[in-house]
Design a protein that fits this description.
By secondary structure, this protein is mainly α. The chain is built from 6 helices and no strands. 80% of the residues lie in helices and 0% in strands.
Length: 125
């Protein structure tokens, strides 16, 4: 999420802020590999991911959603599409990160976006 926020602001290669954040936080190799796979998937599918998110935002433009919430939703959407972890885990993690970086309202907003996205993705399978 933090790498995506940096990428939104500065642009460039998404892997650069990811590696900087990994070094700063002392991320273990497994965590870094998973984060790298999420970033690579988002890079390849960003237009589809953002279109899906925009499709469930009622009366909101994705660009108007705050950086943390927007990128938490992006990460969770990529996780839902990759299907490497249980969908409920991806949604719950998104909600928990929203609480950590925002407040209860942020968590409710993230949940309100991820729930219909989850249903939509499950219907496609």
């Amino acid at each position: 999420m933090q790498a995506l926020c940096h990428h939104d602001t500065a642009g460039g290669d998404l892997q650069v802020p990811l590696m900087e954040l990994a070094v700063e936080s002392g991320a273990n190799p497994a965590t870094l590999a998973y984060a790298r796979s999420l970033c690579e998937h988002y890079t390849l599918t960003s237009k589809d991911v953002d279109k899906r998110i925009q499709g469930v935002l009622d009366n909101w433009d994705l660009k108007r959603v705050g950086d943390p919430a927007r990128n938490i939703i992006r990460v969770a959407t990529v996780e839902l599409l990759m299907k490497k972890i249980p969908p409920k885990v991806a949604v719950d993690e998104g909600i928990n990160v929203a609480r950590e970086y925002g407040d209860e309202e942020s968590a409710k907003f993230v949940n309100g976006v991820l729930d219909p996205l989850l249903k939509q993705i499950q219907e496609e399978s």
